[in-house]
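U., I forgot to send this yesterday:
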Amino acid sequence: MFRHSSRFLTRAATSTMRWRRPFSSTDLPAESVADSKFAEAWTKAIPNVDPPKTPSAFMTPRPPTPSSIPSKLTVNFVLPYSSELSGKEVDMVIIPATTGQMGVLPGHVATIAELKPGVLSVHEGNDVNKYFVSGGFAFVHSNSYADIIAIEAVPLDHIDPNLVQKGLTEFTQKLSTASTDVEKAEAQIGVDVHSALNAALTG
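Result:
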């Protein structure tokens, strides 16, 4: 029964769900028309089993793109284990993108940027909070929202310069004596991260 139902649902989904949602869209409806059609098709094929929820059922709608550029940029800055900033309104953020330092102001064009080890600066009036991030991604939306996801991050003033210098020396020595590709790759990553830390502290 399920084998025949899956074929029916595939045909129904193909005919009724020919729609596209841009990946960078910021106006996400709570429930799309396509989802309701999918549920109808599922109910006809398997009436005794509740239809599964689609991803859009778990998405909360973002505020619509304003007609005028707001005065503040709303930032969400999260790590796998904590949230550093949640809905924080700031003047600007500067992110360490792989293509170079990128300043993000209110009204910035929608962008996805990969982060490299470096300093993330959050500007709010005369206050500037700096974090060292090891990598991640930044999603800048057209409605002046920015979502920054980092693997690791630490406030810059919490870093010990002596430990950074020690680590840089150790990884530089490991790189010069590495004999396998894996050892070279691991040592190079250590050199890159500690060099970025050193540049952040001395720059």
